[in-house]
RNA sequence: GGUGAGGUGGGUGAGUGGCUGAAACCACCGGUUUGCUAAACCGGCGUACCUUGAAAGGGGUACCGCGGGUUCGAAUCCCGCCCUCACCGCCA
């Protein structure tokens, strides 16, 4: 959520941002409406506070009058307070309605894209940076997609997952399980070496938490919900880890905050269909190591670059063909100012699979989190937050299996071998 | 799941109807003193919103877990909820 004060001061920029995101003309009026609602809110607040101030004065006076025995005088003033109170009550309701209306409106206004975000309507318009310099791997006719490889080597059992839970809940076994565990440990170790504190967070979160990182109300339908206890299963470790910083005021010297965590991620993926959902391409439960940072505003873009570099390194070490996309306005997430997606090439499927997304949210997230710091004048300012996957496992496994298949089995990248304890799946 | 105790500022903790946005102490920041450090002493030290001001600053409102209520007036009384701790039950 953008701050209304920011919108007031930067109306043109916000409008430009909406255009970059292909908002329609009638949506552009949101900005004007927000300012008007805020005017109304301020006006009501002034009126409301003035009445309360008067009532407070009277209450004090009544106390004095009682002490000095002037009962009649006190009774007169009591009547006056009662009148004020009625008015205040009405105003209070109006004020609350006005505040709610303003927040509802602000929730519809997305983050302002960074100037480098290309205009564009859909993922077709993303700016692609091809980082894999060698020719993309070509597999011969025998090459199998990962779901067939998983069956051939008994690594993943989709049917058993479906039996136990339902489709989209794969069951890993044997060398498949060990590969999974190896990747998690490898990613966590790399993050730790890069200076991130490792966190093991809760996997279910309450409503306040889901709200603070923006899963509610935007993505309510995407989360599994435990009605009995009013808890949500996390769709990403970003949610609990970022909420560590909710309602926190930091000092400048505390930055940067760097945290990482491995968690399973649960997503309902309502509406997904077709070839996208085959095998590990799109599942309801997958594992991911997430990296989260909070920085001073002036450092956040340098930090974003460093996060991109770190993720890039992971893919290089895994020897996977990858490319980096700068998301265009139409594809950019609602809360992000700038996002880079990482995709790895799946040789058997002959398509790119998204394995990471790194974003700078600037103050959009910290505003809802109320994550602040004291600047040199001791004034509180919103910090910037960033996060990224480093990395999402399911699709990495898909790509590893497919790209590294040989007649003798599936080759394990050397960097992973100390973690797996084997160099070949056979 | 049951019973009991409790939730006050960064921390400890006082406060049972007006003099309390909140004592005291600790921590922290600034200063005095001082070979250095320490000690001592003095001062400062919450957040959000509204308003005024060029700014520094001034004025107002709200906040003592959250939400309601009683009252002229609530941290303090009442109701509901949440959370923490202890014990019992169950249990990896």
User: Going across the major beta sheet, what is the strand order?
Assistant: 1-11-12-13-16-10-9-4
Work out the radius of gyration: 27 Å
Q: Can you give the helix content as a percent range?
A: 40-55%
Give the CATH superfamily of the largest domain.
Answer: Bira Bifunctional Protein, Domain 2
Q: CATH class of the largest domain, please?
A: Alpha Beta
Number of beta strands: 19
- Poorly predicted parts: none
Which CATH architecture of the largest domain would you pick? 2-Layer Sandwich
The profile of the biggest β sheet is:
8 strands, mixed
Q: Based on CA inertia axes, which overall geometry fits?
A: elongated
Number of helices, where a helix is a run of at least 4 consecutive DSSP H or I residues: 13
Mean pLDDT over the full residue set? 92
Number of domains: 2
Q: Can you tell me the CATH topology of the largest domain?
A: BirA Bifunctional Protein, domain 2
**Share of β-strand residues:** 15-25%
Please give the alpha-carbon distance between the first and last residues.
51 Å
Structural class: alpha+beta
Tell me briefly what this model is.
A hairpin with a 4-residue loop joins strand 12 and strand 13 (351-362).
